[in-house]
């Protein structure tokens, strides 16, 4: 029976849905994480009786038809790029973006990636790096004898050197925007890379031309809402169970038909 294959596609779709939800829940405390959702479409139909066909020589038209669907398929797991809650940490190199924009990161192979995770550190040379040691762009080096580091809303990084009363500017953080930020490719480590779907990055300065502002001493939390994820998980579980029930009922019907033919 067709129902066996149709229900099987439904179970596979809900299994993937649960995988997406579980990843969201697993990353609910991941800095800068953007939740995903699974999107589905129905599969092709067999048109046993097509709507609108002529049913007699007098021109009668069929008002309804018989269309048998073949199930469901997953078409995408887009990321929801909404702003996450900003959590105060008071760390000098904990930096959050409020609004549009990603921090630009240089990977070991010389290419660039982008992130909303602003939990930066200093390496042995005093350069601002990510937790994996990747360089924050543009390269900013903080003197080893600096007693204080401040970052203003425009991303300007200043340090205080012993024996001086005036803060010294050592660089300015820039932000990158994308026409379609949902088209970015996740590569792990809280990083994204550009794709043809995202478009090329538009680099600029915080607070200018639609870019967000930068807040020192804050980190952006994941935009995962626990209540929503649990609700979606329960719905996915129920849908999976109902598809399994369809398979069980179809199998019972096939057994009944087989027994009737044997008797």
UniProtKB/TrEMBL annotation:
PROSITE patterns: FLAGELLA_BB_ROD
Cellular compartments per GO CC: bacterial-type flagellum basal body, distal rod
InterPro entries attached to this UniProt entry: Flag_bb_rod_N, Flagellar_basal_body_rod_CS, Flagellar_FlgE/F/G, Flg_bb/hook_C_dom, FlgE/F/G-like, FlgG_G_neg, LlgE_F_G-like_D1
Keywords assigned: Bacterial flagellum, Cell projection, Cilium, Flagellum
Location (main, coarse): other
Residue span(s) of domain Flagellar hook protein FlgE/F/G-like D1: 96-159
Location in the cell: Bacterial flagellum basal body
Protease is among the record's keywords: no
Superkingdom, taxonomy of origin: Bacteria
Family classification: Belongs to the flagella basal body rod proteins family.
Subunit structure, as described in the record: The basal body constitutes a major portion of the flagellar organelle and consists of four rings (L,P,S, and M) mounted on a central rod. The rod consists of about 26 subunits of FlgG in the distal portion, and FlgB, FlgC and FlgF are thought to build up the proximal portion of the rod with about 6 subunits each.
Stated name of the protein: Flagellar basal-body rod protein FlgG
């Amino acid at each position: 029976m067709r129902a066996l294959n149709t229900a099987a596609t439904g179970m596979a779709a809900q299994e993937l849905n649960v995988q997406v939800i579980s990843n969201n829940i697993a990353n609910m405390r991941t800095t800068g994480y953007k939740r995903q959702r699974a999107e589905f479409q129905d599969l092709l139909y067999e048109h046993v009786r097509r709507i609108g066909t002529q049913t007699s020589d007098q021109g009668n038209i069929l008002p309804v038809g018989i269309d048998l669907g073949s199930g469901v398929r997953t078409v995408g797991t887009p990321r929801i790029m909404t702003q996450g809650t900003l959590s105060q940490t008071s760390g000098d190199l904990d930096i959050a973006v409020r609004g549009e924009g990603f921090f630009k990161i240089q990977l070991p192979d010389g290419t660039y990636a982008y992130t909303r995770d602003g939990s930066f550190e200093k390496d042995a040379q005093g350069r601002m790096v990510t937790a994996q040691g990747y360089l924050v762009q543009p390269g900013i080096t903080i003197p080893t004898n600096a007693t204080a580091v401040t970052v203003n809303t425009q991303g300007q990084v200043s340090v205080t050197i012993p024996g001086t009363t005036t803060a010294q500017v050592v660089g300015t953080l820039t932000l990158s925007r994308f026409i379609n930020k949902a088209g970015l490719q996740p590569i792990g480590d809280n990083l994204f890379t550009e794709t043809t779907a995202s478009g090329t990055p538009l680099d600029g300065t915080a607070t200018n031309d639609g870019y967000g502002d930068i807040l020192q001493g804050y980190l952006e939390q994941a935009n995962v809402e626990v209540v929503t994820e649990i609700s979606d998980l329960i719905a996915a579980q129920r849908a999976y169970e109902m598809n399994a029930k369809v398979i069980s009922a179809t199998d019972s019907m096939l057994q009944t038909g087989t027994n009737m033919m044997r008797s």
